[in-house]
Amino acid sequence: MCGFVVIVGDFAAGAAKAASKFIIHRGPDEYGDFNYKNIQVATRRLVIQDLEGGQQPFTNLSNTKILAYNGEIFNSLSLRSQLKETGFNFKSHHSDTETLFSILSKNKLNLLKDLNGMFSFAFIDLESNNLKICRDYAGQKPLFWSLVNNSLVIASELEPIKYLTKNFKLNMNGVSSFIQNGYIPFDQTVFSNINKVKPGEMIDFNLADMTYSKQNISLFSPENYCPGSAKNIDINHLSDLIVNATLQWSASDVPISVSLSDGIDSSLITAILAKNGVKDLSTYTLSFESGNFKNTVHNPLPKLFHLPHHEISITPHKIKENLLEMVKSLGEPYAGGMPSWFVYKEMSHKVKVALTGSGADELFDNYGKAQLINRISKFNLFNSYSNYQKIVGSLSKNSSIQSNARYLIESIHKNIHKETGTFLNKVSLLDANDVVLDRPKNEILDSFISKKNLGLYDFVFCYDFNTQLSEEFLFMTDRYSMFHSVESRSPFLDLDLIKYICSFDRKTLVANGSKFYLREIAKNWLDKSLLNQPKKGFTLPEHYLMKNELKDFVNYFLSKESVHLHNVLDYDVVKIWKLRFYSEPNNNYVTNIMWRIFILQIWLSQQNHKS
After folding, report:
1. DSSP string of 340-369?
2. Rounded CA gap, 411 and 419, in Å?
3. CA-CA distance, 154 to 272, in Å (whole number)?
4. 462-493 burial: b if 16+ Cβ within 10 Å, else e
5. 3-class secondary structure, 224
6. Which H helix or E strand runs over 565?
7. How many CA atoms lie within 13 Å of 563's alpha carbon, on the beta-carbon side?
8. How many helices (H) and strands (E) does the chain have?
């Protein structure tokens, strides 16, 4: 695992090395570089496997092919057996960096779709004057690029690009997406001249004239996703895939840990590792208590398997102490995931590798969306806002369910009627009082649906996999973990496991309820008490925090002076939101928007932007 910076253009000598200092947390163990004419490459490596090998940048003997790579490829050894047939001689014992280099240097690009793991890379071929960049199929590892005045800058995070390009401007559509959705999807970022490589996307640059082409090699992208039709699920084979994925993704030459909740995802991972005798395994859980709010993870597995266990107590004071650094570490505004910050911060004192249950929800449908689809299908969908509100309100009084319902109703309408823009323009996720920007725009569904005509169940899976999973949950996980020099891995995002799940008819897969098949498999590993307890999730009381411990922060960052200083939000609208926030304490939707505005203002205060 590492981070890298690649620049092609008229930059001062040592520019890439200087820029890489902004991502030293991604790789504090080793530094490497390559320089040739107007090309500079700088890498920062976090050493986890092949401690003596795997140095970067990785080059051939003639220094005409150069690889900078971030991530882990867990089927590296099996790919090597295929590559040896082409005459490639490996120098290292099991370096996945060398495996990837051989695939690219031998132009075996058809093997890229078979890479099982998490990765992003930049590969330069001086002989063909070509540069390729790519990101893994689930978007677990980030990659950004900027092409300005014929100069190309590529980096694992935004800060090196900002440092090198200097002239960066806010992308108001990206800011609007954040306010409306809580994250920024697809290839846009919060800056107008910095782009994000999408999950599974490979961009091919001609270094002679800086023209480029794009293709997506992910089997799960909107362009390539082919819904399965199989009906009979082999529960034993599925179980084997989950066990193999967990063991394969835990491969490490250093101690590992599990971020443990009270749900079956992380519990199943912990049980598989413990029962298979994985060494140097530990677990971490969270607790929060303040006033009338209490949230504690009670999981018996650490005691059952005699694992070193760490319970992290979060307090309002700790949140206030860490909040500004949390926001800054992300690079872009993001409004969630605070508990994870404390997990990785504590882990960093003892381990370099953490396993999580991310991806299981999207694969096995635990957001209740299958049930919502069945319930929404009973209604006639109209363009009337009043009817829309009645539909959402009748489904559930739970605000998170209502949020899912809003999204699904809009999805259904757009997917069935193919009326670009009609529904979202009339019924936005924000109502008449919810306009924060001068140019609010929700283009997620427009951008996504236009690329693929899918059945509703498959649409929901493919949409979530390529947006919320990659650009919200995995975005947050990567930034918070790597800020603390911890590599986070998600075994449920194993390529073979996802391919098997996607071979089935999605409606069949979720017909028996959320996570039915995962629960069936977990019966062989977990006690009934764990299987039957509902997943609570670990959330923090944002409304309570903003009215108490963070009150002075809220007053400062949402003051008239602060809002006018950054000149992004309309203070009159912010004032309306503040009034709603204090007068509607039980409205989670209002709290969510208020929190996003608050986080955005903090983030803006940390930038030297040009709007």
Report:
1. HHHHHHHHTTT-SEEE--TTHHHHHT-SSH
2. 11
3. 38
4. bbbbbbbbbbbbbbbbbbbbbbbbbbbbbbbb
5. coil
6. helix 560-566
7. 17
8. 27, 18
Residue 433: name the closest of 554, 580, 557 by CA.
580
Residues 344, 488 contacting (CB under 8 angstroms): yes
Q: Which residue reads 């950004």 in tokens?
A: 144
Helix (H) or strand (E) holding 374: helix 369-376
DSSP SS3 for 197: coil
217-227 pLDDT, tens digit per residue, is 999 998 889 88
| Phi then psi dihedrals of residue 180, to 5 deg | -80, -35
How far from the centroid of its chain's Cα atoms is residue 421's Cα?
27
pLDDT in tens, 469-501: 999 999 999 999 999 999 999 999 999 999 999
> Measuring CA to CA, which residue among 66, 46, 225, 29 is closest to residue 141?
46
Would you state the structure tokens that stand for residue 314, as one six-digit string?
Answer: 């979060």
Contact assessment for residue 547 and residue 586, using Cβ atoms and an 8 Å cutoff: no
pLDDT interval class at 234 (50, 70, 90)? very high
Q: Tens of pLDDT along 24-81?
A: 999 999 999 999 999 999 999 998 766 566 689 999 999 999 999 999 999 999 999 8
Residues in CB range of 482: below 8 A, 6 or more apart: 1, 3, 25, 26, 46, 488
- Tell me the CA distances in angstroms from 319 to 25, 39, 337, 544, 553, one per residue in order: 21, 42, 12, 12, 12
CB 176 within 8 A of CB 188: no
Radius of gyration of the chain (CA): 24
**Mean of pLDDT values over 229-236:** 93
Q: Set out the domains of the chain in order of their start, with CATH numbers.
A: 2-216 (3.60.20.10), 235-364+466-532 (3.40.50.620), 369-464 (no CATH), 542-605 (no CATH)
Both tokens assigned to 416:
């069935």
Strand, helix or coil at 394?
Answer: helix
- Give the pLDDT score at 88: 78
β-pairing, 309-314 vs 281-290, is: parallel
CA atoms 55, 59, 61, 62: torsion sign:
negative
3-state helix, strand, coil in the chain (%, to 5): 45, 20, 40
User: Helical H runs in 427-515?
Assistant: 444-449, 456-464, 474-483, 495-502, 506-509
| Model confidence, pTM | 0.90
Task: Determine the Cα–Cα distance for residues 299 and 320; give it in Å rounded to an integer.
Answer: 28
> Which amino acid makes up residue 22?
F
Q: Exposed, middle or buried: residue 88 (CB in 10 Å: 0-12, 13-18, 19+)?
A: middle
Sign of the dihedral defined by the CA atoms of residues 552, 338, 199, 230, in that order? negative
Between CA 197 and CA 537 the distance in angstroms is 30
Distances (CA, A) of 279 to 249, 270, 567: 14, 12, 54
Question: Can you read off the two tokens belonging to residue 458?
Answer: 């498959």
Structure tokens given for 242 = 């989950």
pLDDT at residue 15 above 90?
Answer: yes
Closest CA to 403 of 172, 222, 590, 580: 590
Residues 6 or more apart whose CB falls under 8 angstroms from that of 438 comprise: 570
- Tokens 């530094």 correspond to 31
